[in-house]
Amino acid sequence: MATLPCDECEKAGPSCPAGFERPYRRPYLIGVYLATNAIADAATVVDGPDCAFFKAEFIHGKHDLGSTLLDVTGHHRILVSQVTTDDLTLSQGRRAAELARRAAQQPATTLVMVTALPLVTITGVGHDQLVRDLQPEVDADLVAIPGRSLQGDWLAGYEDVLTLLARRLVERGDEPPADGSADRSSGVSSVSVIGYLMDRNEEDHRANVAELRRLIEGLGLELDTIWLSGQRWPEMTQALRSDILVALPMGRSAARTIAAQTGAQVVEVDLPFGLADTERFIRAVGRATGTEQRAETMLVQELEQALPRLEWAIPHYFLGKRVALFGTPDLFGGFHQLATELGMEVIGLGCPAHRPQWLDLDGWTGVTPTFDVSPETLSRGWWRSEDRRPDIVIGTTDALKCVPAEVACVELGYPGTTDHAFFDRPFLGYRGYLAFVQRMVTALAMTTGRVGGS
């Protein structure tokens, strides 16, 4: 992405000599680590130099205060072979294999993923074969994750993990452990939700999982599992027995992989973020399971509870305000409609990643999203002009660092290092909608000095 002149360069005349802007794109390995973090009994082995270990610190104790990736006793869930250029050709994956064996022998570990950095993959080490050779020796499931750090970003890493875990279930060719909870004779459809981006084990994401469960079970359905939701790997295998696989954007490939084995119906839906996308989510699941009438009843009841609470907030806080979002692309559609329904103008949508293949912008009528947004773009493009400056920005810690002091902020997404959730605070579904709007009201009120709406 060619750079534009910065303020200092404009004064001097020439454009920036660097010629490129710095993207906010997070690396592929971060997506793999986030997925590991969201599976309670998983470990990941990285064949690469020791710098790969310290990437876990971007999540553990900073973004996620509930993370268990690292352990004070040394029993970490991220293990790195620490190969160097001097001994790389001699190692040939042996260190990674020993770490995978050690991780798989831990009583609390039932899933071990093995990946590598390009420094190792270019030497031709076959980690797929390493996993196949080691699997008969251990009880834990072993899964090889491609070392795509040069081709993919963090969202691709997370999505790849989901797809390869689904492939591992298919390769096993067995049924999930029976827990006695299902009664298939009742005729109740069973559902799994595939593709939730659980980027931390705090009470915002745990509450999102609870809200997804509430919506599914509110239709009279049985929820088998949510990928990913902080569950253990044996619990995730329950997806094999689901009649319906509800595929969120990042889980569509994984859902299709499972369905090809089980014959389950795949229902592709958007993330239930905001009233409109939550309504579409419920109706899509209702149609697929024959619970349309129950879905319509739920919609009426939920709206009757939610809408009256916004009667005062919309005209006094939102009407005519400008807003920008810097987040993952599965939020774009829901957020644009959410903001528009509140009477706001969306002036910017940015994403700290490549445009994913699953994002369909055909027929998109809102502001055009920008991908691989750089610090320079954030600092200049969205709020440089006084008459186009947003009143509030929703985004990650990286984005909010660039926001002028007079602009209201709500932190959302990875990385989020300044606002943590210690109590139920969803942002999905109807309860999440109200909680999210409440955070926006608070931010606007505090910034404008209208505390309490006075």
Question: How does this structure look, described?
Answer:
- This protein has 454 residues and is α/β, with parallel strands linked by helices.
- The protein folds into three domains: 125 residues, Nitrogenase molybdenum iron protein domain (Rossmann fold, 3-Layer(aba) Sandwich); 124 residues, Nitrogenase molybdenum iron protein domain (Rossmann fold); 144 residues, Rossmann fold (3-Layer(aba) Sandwich), CATH 3.40.50.
- It has 18 helices and 13 strands.
- The strands form three sheets. It has a five-stranded parallel sheet with strand order 11-10-9-12-13.
- Strand 1, helix 3 and strand 2 form a beta-alpha-beta unit.
- Helix 8 runs parallel beside helix 11, helix 9 packs antiparallel against helix 18 and helix 12 runs antiparallel to helix 13.
- The two termini are 45 Å apart.
- The N terminus is likely disordered.
What is the gist of this entry?
The chain folds into three domains: 28-152, Rossmann fold (3-Layer(aba) Sandwich); 184-307, 3-Layer(aba) Sandwich (Rossmann fold), CATH 3.40.50.1980; 310-453, Rossmann fold (3-Layer(aba) Sandwich). Helices cover 38% and strands 13% of the residues. It contains 18 helices and 13 strands.
What is this structure's SSE topology?
Blueprint: H1 7-12, H2 28-37, E1 42-47, H3 51-54, E2 78-80, H4 88-91, H5 94-104, E3 111-116, H6 118-121, H7 127-134, E4 141-144, H8 154-172, E5 190-194, H9 203-218, E6 222-227, H10 233-236, E7 244-247, H11 252-262, E8 265-268, H12 275-289, H13 292-306, H14 313-318, E9 322-326, H15 332-341, E10 345-351, E11 370-371, H16 375-380, E12 392-395, H17 397-400, E13 408-411, H18 429-448
Parallel strand pairs: 1-2, 1-3, 3-4, 5-6, 5-7, 7-8, 9-10, 9-12, 10-11, 12-13
Helix pairs in contact: 2-8, 8-11, 9-18, 12-13
